[in-house]
Amino acid sequence: MYPHAGPGGGPGFVHGGRHGRRGDGAVRSAQLDEFRANKSRKWELRDIFGYIVEFSGDQHGSRFIQQKLESASSEEMEIVFDEIVPQYAVQLMQDVFGNYVVQKMFEYGTAAQKARLVSTMEGQVLGLSLQMYGCRVVQKAIEYVGPDQQVMFVQELSPSVLRCVKDANGNHVIQKIIEHVVPERLAFVNAFRGSVYELSTHPYGCRVLQRCFEYLPDEQTRPLLDELHKYVSNLMIDQFGNYVVQFVLEHGTPQDRAMIIAKLTGQMNNMAKHKFASNVCEKALVTADPDSRRQLIDEIMTPKQQDGPSPLMSLMKDSFGNYVLQRALTVAEGEQKEQLISKVRPHLVNMRRYSSAYSKHLSASECNFVRSARHIELTVHVVERLLEKFSSNAPSSEVTPVEGPTDFTS
After folding, report:
1. pLDDT averaged over the chain?
2. N or C end of the chain, less CB within 10 A?
3. DSSP characters over 366-404
4. Bias category Gly residues: which stretches (predicted)?
């Protein structure tokens, strides 16, 4: 019995005796036919020896092997490895069902067995990392092999690291490397210098940068952070860049946090009404030191000109600014909190009148305006609820504003 590649690149078998055909036209062995048909039989891993490759490429067979590998004996595991490695390993790594079997082999195999599996990937790591299913196997390998094998993955990917970072599949591999490989072996991070703005505003690059800031030491991230600070104002208003800025606000050093908040100061009211920058405003209010937080809240309470219109009304009406105002109400302290409440409360009546009058003159077809009116009603309701809790002296930690709108999760 010898396995062969079936039509479409999937693994298949040809055997004597009874056989069937898969949906893609490939010949299916009698053993797999029986496995799929006979659900009452108690199947064991030994029952499919000689058919491991074919079963790995079948939806039901793959799931069966995955379950059995978790409790397989050393002899059974060795047979599975012998049937797959080296001839069919890379083929299964790129298969929609087979990749899960190979992942389990990395998870439960011995060090020697995993080394054999890694050897089949040499020279093909880049291609696997850019492939939908292969990238999952590469990630699992990086997580479960030893440092010596990890070096091979880093060496093969380093010349193409920026290509991987910007790839829908490859970026996950680079993130996994940053998480699991010792920093001194990640010289490829130097390739990110000069491209921080480009990466920060990229849907995948922004994720990789966040992993760098999370796992790498200051000597590797400092040049990247220094470069990032040059573009903070533009990154705040970017659909992906705002997440990088938020990450630094939450996890960065006090110095980095202070530099970002300094850029936000003086722009708070405008940024609070921006779809993406409003998220940064909320994060800044939560992470700022007490003095900086007071300054930011003062800014959203204080008219630009004496006797000028209150910025609070504008924030309450705005579909993004209202979330920043809610956050300010939850983090303000002491006298400033009382002052903020006293300034917000008079606007609630006007907001209700505005919402009611706004709704009367709108037709059902004017969907955007209808949504705006409903949004105002919701804002009033939420702010009133917050004020009621504050008035009852509830601790700030018990009052949680509604989450602001987000379009991307890092």
Report:
1. 85
2. N
3. -HHHHHHHHHHHHHHHHHHHHHHHHHTT--GGG--PPPP
4. 1-15
Summarised one tens digit per residue, pLDDT across range 363-389 is 343 344 334 445 555 555 666 666 666
Compute the distance between CA of residue 277 and CA of residue 246 in angstroms, rounded to an integer: 10
Helix (H) or strand (E) holding 27: strand 27-28
Query: How many Cα neighbours within 13 Å face the side chain of 311?
Result: 23
d(CA 329, CA 167): 41
Mean pLDDT of 286-306: 92
Scanning the structure block, which residue is given the tokens 């690291």?
Answer: 161
pLDDT greater at residue 370 or residue 291: 291
pLDDT in tens, 299-358: 999 887 776 677 888 898 888 999 999 999 999 999 999 999 888 888 776 666 655 544
In order, the DSSP letters of 165-208 are HTSTTHHHHHHHHHHHS-GGG-GGGGGGTT-HHHHHTSTTHHHH
**What is the rounded end-to-end Cα distance, in angstroms, of the chain?**
48
For the chain, what's the residue count?
Answer: 410
